[in-house]
Amino acid sequence: MVRARVLLLSAATLSACSVGPDYRPRTPAELGVPEAYSVPGAPTREDLTRWWNRFDDPVLGRLVEQAAANNTDVAQAIARLRQAREPLVQSRGSLLPTVSGSTGYQRNENLRGGGRSFTLPDGTVVDTGGGGTNNFSVGLSASWQVGIFGELRRTVEATRAQYESAGYDYAGVIQTVQSETARNYVLARAYQAQIANARASLTLQDDNLEIAGFRVQAGLVSSLDSEQARVQRAQTAATIPSLEQQYNAAVSRLGVLTGQAPGALKGELVAAKPIPTGPASVGIGIPADTLRQRPDVRSAERALAAATAQIGVAKARLYPALAITGNINTNATSIGNIGDAITGGLFAGLTQAIFNGGRLRSQVRGQEAIAEAALAAYKGTVLLALEDVENAIVALTTAQAREREFAIALDAANTSAILSRSQYRSGLTDFTTLNQQEAALLSARNGLTQARSDAATALVALYVALGGGWDANTIPDVDTVRAANVTEPR
């Protein structure tokens, strides 16, 4: 027994040694992260966990939350997260011994001689034979792969990192679904506004067509004015079916994103509402914040950690492997005597690969190449995140500038259209001038609508680029997903 304890203690001491490189988080400087963005922005970081509330649009907020709970892509991400947890459970189990037990019973009968006999009621004599013996057995066996060079712990390290990476991938899917929902909601409201602009222009153009008809009948102008009015009205009317088709596509997409049929939201969104507007500026923080806030960056970092741990797993195969097995057995002729005689054994063995044609060292080199690729992918993800932030900032500022200019243009175009219509009625200008002013008015209206839509879309993109939409202080796992009341398939 003392020897067994010494053997187990020695194995545990040896198992504290792990070959292969220990993972080291990279600094922002090593990843090429600058100290500040190259575009202007507020350096104060904001809490963007629920960024959709900043638009002050209850319908938008409800749709975003509904999509995060019911979207089919989210359900798939949850399933992948659950799947990624199982290798971690299995690798942790490999650190512990495997124990199995067995029991048996055997009855031996002596069918001839020395037995007893008895007579049945019909007179038949039955010989029970020469008596019998019972044999009861109980056995317990255990085996333990010690992993003296850390291959088991490296495996646990790799599977834990892979599980955490899957959690961040889930957060990334949540972000994508949220942004797509908000973007399509903005598009739906923008198409409603453009349809309203076209119909408002049609009302004016109907009046122009009527005025041109009166002036033609009065002989004041040629029929060219009337034909020009008809052309203008028809062209404006032709834009409405296309806008309605695009509006329908956006609303249908919202239905699918929220886990419903395409037409599920058409009744709810049929009433036109303004394009949602958020705050004029956003606290973007510093570039290093993306290392913590962006789930895709953190997923790439965990993938690098997993690849680094796999190098240790591959290197450990170059060294001896220790296995310890033991068993305890007992046999007795009765249950009461089952513990009278107990036998057992303990065996420890080392195995070492002597010749394998260079296969094991090739596996090490292959894992090192995988880790190098994971590091490059990590750096690329970081730089792409910074690019997303800067592009979104520029898109937002330019859209806001366009919105201001189009507001001025709309005011001027509206005034010009009113004056042109009044002058045409009085015969002070021709229809071509009126036509041009009416077209400029519609263009200014649609330009302002598009600029507002672009500003809202850019703001959504900026929130997502900054890593909003999830709690960056936690590592998403199966338990936190359940706690968030996210629908999980069973």
TrEMBL record:
Main location: membrane
Keyword annotations: Lipoprotein, Membrane, Palmitate, Transmembrane, Transmembrane beta strand
Family: Belongs to the outer membrane factor (OMF) (TC 1.B.17) family.
Annotated Polar residues bias: 99-108
Species lineage: Bacteria, Pseudomonadati, Pseudomonadota, Alphaproteobacteria, Sphingomonadales
PANTHER family: OUTER MEMBRANE CATION EFFLUX PROTEIN (PTHR30203), OUTER MEMBRANE PROTEIN-RELATED (PTHR30203:SF25)
Species per Swiss-Prot/TrEMBL record: Sphingomonas longa
Location of the region described as Disordered in the Swiss-Prot/TrEMBL record: 99-119
Annotated compartments: Cell membrane
Name listed for the protein in its UniProt record: Efflux transporter outer membrane subunit
Recorded superkingdom: Bacteria
Keyword set includes Cell membrane: no
Stored InterPro entries: MdtP/NodT-like (IPR010131), OMP_efflux (IPR003423)
Any one Pfam family match given in the protein's UniProt record, by short name: OEP
Membrane topology term: Lipid-anchor
